[in-house]
Amino acid sequence: MRSTLNGLCETCVWVRRIANDRGSVFLLCRRALTDPSYPKYPRLPVLRCLGFEPVPPPPTPTEK
Ligand code: SF4
């Protein structure tokens, strides 16, 4: 089961993980790059977000 510490951002297609030199990881919302109504670094956990788009599940192998 995936962690939900980061809320919706954890499974959103718009998130990008940014790591600094000290090993800390920040979540950047890429929607904020074109839409100022979104925070660049959302306060976590994000529990509600109109911009949330879930990462699609990986394709399942087809049987032959
Ligand atoms: S759109 Fe919302 S849920 Fe997705 S990364 Fe940005 S703040 Fe998080």
Tell me what you see in this structure.
The protein has 64 residues and is mainly beta. It has one domain (1-49). The protein contains no helices and two strands. The chain has strands at residues 15-19, 25-29. The chain has a two-stranded antiparallel ribbon. Strand 1 (15-19) and strand 2 (25-29) form a beta hairpin. The model has no long low-confidence stretch (mean pLDDT 91).
Short description, anyone?
The protein has 64 residues and is mainly β. It is built from no helices and two strands. A hairpin with a 5-residue loop joins strand 1 (15-19) and strand 2 (25-29).
Ordered list of secondary-structure elements with their pairings:
Elements: E1 15-19, E2 25-29
Antiparallel strand pairs: 1-2
Features:
64 residues, mainly beta, two-stranded antiparallel sheet, 2 strands, 0% helix, globular, binds iron/sulfur cluster
Task: List the ions, cofactors and other small molecules found in this model.
Answer: iron/sulfur cluster
General shape? globular
Q: What's the alpha carbon Rg, rounded to whole Å?
A: 14 Å
- The mean pLDDT is 91
Structural class: mainly beta
Measured distance between first and last alpha carbons: 30 Å
Task: Let me know the number of strands.
Answer: 2
As a percent range, the share of helical residues equals under 10%
N to C succession of SSEs = EE
Strand percent estimate: 15-25%
- What is the total domain count? 1
Question: Sheet bearing the most strands, described?
Answer: 2 strands, antiparallel
Number of helices: 0
The order of strands across the largest sheet is 1-2
Low-confidence stretches: none
